[in-house]
């Protein structure tokens, strides 16, 4: 079993700001997500990628409202161009960068297919989970071979390492050629770590938080982490795909560009993003059903630069 954690370490970077920043491990979203320029290109290590038809199942662990579920589901459906409405910049355009990774590796484009949704409102494994229990939950859903499972935990569920060392992680089952992503709702546990820039950060410059595009700091924070981990899982599902640095602590398509959401990003500043004239919320991508999202920058494999939609 391969295990890819979205973790962070304290590092002395950006001394001009005298900040303590957190670095990402494979497939991970760092806690503070403040910008660090990527040093090199992401290389392909000749391993299996998730290509072609990609069945995605969701396990809702704990209490999620119908509106919260629809925000996540609409994001997944928006990844496919045929579902995307004409509004720009679009979620499907953001996903095109991931398709570039696949194309450069000689693989088929990844088409996300929402397969099944399961709800465990009563939290059958309890509300304090070890990492191996998260893996068990993913196996319980029994993702199809070549498929992906999203394990999403509610705001009152604590997961080992959550807020202390990670905001989510991805893992895999090589025997079934399947992978899973776990992300938690941080709104009542550590929004300053895992829902930035929609909440005041715990570390770094104390800039004004951005407005959450769907009016839910916890779920909009989850969207950022789901998107980042989804990008990393497709391009590096088993630890031998696309990554930068050590295989034990790699940077992936999104984790190589932490804290970047628009042009001009710098530590504590997400960059130039769009503003909804009605709600004042911030976003950089539009999806189906009029949805707006703030999606993380991706390392463009053609230019080795962090690519943003705006």
The largest sheet is: 6 strands, mixed
Distance between the termini: 38 Å
Helical content class: 10-25%
The whole-number mean of residue pLDDT values reads 87
User: Are there runs of 5+ residues with pLDDT below 50, and where?
Assistant: 7-27
Round the Cα radius of gyration to an integer and report it: 17 Å
Report the structural category. Answer: alpha/beta
- The count of helical stretches stands at 5
User: What is the N-to-C succession of helices and strands?
Assistant: EEEEEHHEEHEEEEHHEEEEEEE
Number of strands: 18
Quote the beta fraction.
15-25%
Widest β-sheet, arrangement of strands: 1-10-11-8-5-6
Global geometry: globular
Any descriptors?
single chain, 310 residues, alpha/beta, six-stranded mixed β-sheet
Provide a quick synopsis of the model:
With 310 residues, the protein is of the alpha/beta class. A six-stranded mixed sheet has the order 1-10-11-8-5-6, with helices on both faces. Strands 2-3 form a two-stranded antiparallel sheet. Helix content is 20%, strand content 25%.
């Amino acid at each position: 079993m391969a295990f890819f954690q979205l973790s962070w370490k304290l590092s002395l970077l950006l001394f001009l700001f005298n900040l303590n920043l957190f670095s990402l491990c494979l497939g991970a979203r760092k806690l503070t997500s403040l910008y660090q320029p990527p040093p090199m290109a992401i290389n392909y290590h000749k391993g299996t990628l998730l290509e072609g038809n990609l069945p995605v199942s969701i396990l809702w662990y704990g209490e999620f409202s119908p509106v919260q579920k629809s925000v996540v589901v609409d994001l997944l459906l928006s990844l496919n161009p045929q579902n995307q409405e004409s509004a720009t910049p679009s979620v499907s355009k953001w996903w095109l960068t991931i398709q570039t990774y696949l194309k450069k590796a000689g693989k088929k484009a990844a088409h996300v297919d929402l397969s099944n949704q399961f709800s465990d409102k009563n939290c059958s494994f309890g509300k304090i989970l070890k990492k191996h229990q998260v893996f068990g939950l993913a196996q319980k859903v029994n993702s199809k071979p070549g498929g992906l499972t999203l394990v999403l935990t509610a705001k009152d569920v604590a997961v080992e390492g959550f807020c202390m060392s990670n905001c989510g992680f991805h893992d895999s089952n090589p025997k079934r050629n399947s992978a899973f992503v776990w992300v938690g709702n941080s709104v009542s546990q550590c929004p300053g770590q895992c829902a930035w820039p929609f909440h005041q950060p715990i570390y770094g410059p104390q800039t004004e938080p951005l407005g959450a595009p769907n009016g839910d700091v916890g779920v909009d924070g989850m969207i950022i982490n789901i998107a980042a981990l989804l990008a990393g899982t497709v391009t590096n599902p088993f630890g031998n795909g696309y990554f930068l640095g050590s295989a034990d602590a790699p940077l992936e398509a999104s984790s190589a560009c932490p804290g970047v959401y628009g042009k001009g990003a710098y530590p504590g500043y997400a960059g130039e993003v769009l503003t909804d004239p009605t709600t004042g919320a911030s976003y950089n991508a539009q999806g189906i059903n009029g949805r707006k999202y703030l999606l993380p920058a991706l390392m463009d494999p053609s230019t080795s630069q962090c690519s943003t939609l705006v």
